[in-house]
Structure formats: C-alpha cells, structure tokens
Design goal:
The structure is a homodimer of 102-residue chains.
Chain A (H helix, E strand, L loop, with lengths): L11 H4 L1 H10 L5 E2 H7 L4 H13 L3 E8 L2 E8 L1 H22 L1
Antiparallel strand pairs in A: 1-3, 2-3
GO molecular function, one term (chains A, B): DNA binding
Protein name (chains A, B): Winged helix DNA-binding protein
Pfam families (chains A, B): HTH_34
Chain lengths: 102, 102
Amino acid sequence: MSDDHPTNGLDDVVHQKHRLGILTIAAESKRVEFGYLREALDLTAGNLSRHLTVLVDAGLLTMEKGYDGKRPRTWVGITRSGRAALHKEISALRALVARHDS
Amino acid sequence: MSDDHPTNGLDDVVHQKHRLGILTIAAESKRVEFGYLREALDLTAGNLSRHLTVLVDAGLLTMEKGYDGKRPRTWVGITRSGRAALHKEISALRALVARHDS
C-alpha cells in the first residue's frame, strides 16, 4: 500500500519547485541560457547556480560555459537521464492531479 | 514574464512531497488518523509529526488528540485555508503538466 500514493513516486531532487522549473524549461529546447532561466523563474544568480549544481551533480543537466561575442554565457542542457527523471515526475503529478479530481 | 512559469505559483509549504501527500489525503475525508497517514506515505512517526507541525502552524491542518477505546489517537483534518492552498497547488501542477505535454 505504501507505494500506492502518487507523492511516494516523487524525487526531491526533481520535485523541488525551482529545479522542477529548470528541468521543464530545459526540456523544451536543445539548450537554454542562464540569464533566461533566471528571469523566467525569478531567481537570483546565486540561487539558480545552487540548483543547477544539484541537477548537474545528479547527472540530469549539463552546463557549458562560452561566449556570445565578448559576453560570457552559461548554457544548460538536459541529459537523457534528466528527461527520464522529469518524465517520471510529470507522470506522478498527473496521477496526483487525477486522484485529486476524482 | 517571471510570473508566467507554472512553478512560480508553487508554495514550498504545500509543494514539499510529503506535505503534498498529507494534504491530498486529508482533503479526501473529514478527518484522517495519524497511523493511516504514516502507512500511506511510508513515513516515520517523527518525520510525519514534523510535517504535520509545519502544516498546522501554517493554518492548513488541525490536529486533535483523543482515544479510540483505550488507545491514544491523533486525528488530522484539513482547514478551509488548507483546501484553498491545495487547490492552488493542484492548479499550478495541472498547468505544468499541460505545458510539458504541449
């Protein structure tokens, strides 16, 4: 019975609201720029960096530093594991919403 | 733009996976017993107590201690604010799932 409830299928690394936002946005394109994420999720640079580190360390994202002209840029991409983890989270959330609506 | 992303509408008090589980189950009936929650969410008594305290302090749940025969029991009920907060969370999750599926 303990595995039945949809929230038991949630992983804190992915479920945390800002990390869930980062992964959702990263899943929508090949790569996404740090500043874009910061603005879209209304985060400070430090806070965003910390969450990105957690996701990179978990193998869910890659980070690449480079230049756009002379401006330094950080690009973030979702890994295959990241897509799988997000898919699992979204499936659990879908089940939770369905249970709530029933 | 910063308010557009569905995860920006999530509140950490409600979004945390175990608290989300507690609120979802509490919303399904008039009151729910501590041991039932513990088993359904696969939590230790200490961990469940800590999350219940956060939710009671936020005004989202009430806790009532009593007896079932000679056995002490703790009953948990969701408040009107709790239902509203859960509804807001579920709406944001629904938007997130829809965005992911689109």
